[in-house]
What we know:
The protein is of the alpha/beta class. Helices cover 40% and strands 13% of the residues.
Amino acid sequence: MKHLSRKCRSATPVARKAGKKIRPAVLWFTGLSGSGKSTIARKVVSKLKKLGADVEHLDGDTMRSIFPNTGFTKSARDEHIKRVGFLAGMLEKHGVFVVASFVSPYRESRDAVRSLCRTFIEVYVSTPVEECERRDAKGLYTKARRGKISNFTGISDPYEPPKHPELAIDTTGMTVAESTSLVMNYLMGKR
């Protein structure tokens, strides 16, 4: 498949075995605003629930509404991602499959989250900035290019792509169903 940039490195740790519950993990979607992270994550959550998983979705917009004073500087973003990562790790420890969708632009903070989790699966939604801008229903990229939004990832603030994600998906030209299938196939051990 041309949109899947790398094959999974090892057998998936979460596939359900003959009548047993899906093992908990932290499935961490990262990528630019408008890349498709949250949309795919919501579909994956739905599919995991249908398979009987105890699953929780942690999303960037939702979490920022809970922590409204979180800023967009590098240090504020790092602190926020580590806070969410701690929560994700605790949920996983208590048997919950966590699906997280955050821009999470810095490798160091994503690596810190990985260290807090038993099974961390990084999904890099690698959709190019040009496609993300084309999809931008909220007009955030336009505002960022006009200087009305500072520290906007991909425009005035960097995005550090993962070096070794478990899965990378460029959603350009893909349907949500196709993208979701790539993730579910990975999780269920189908290559």
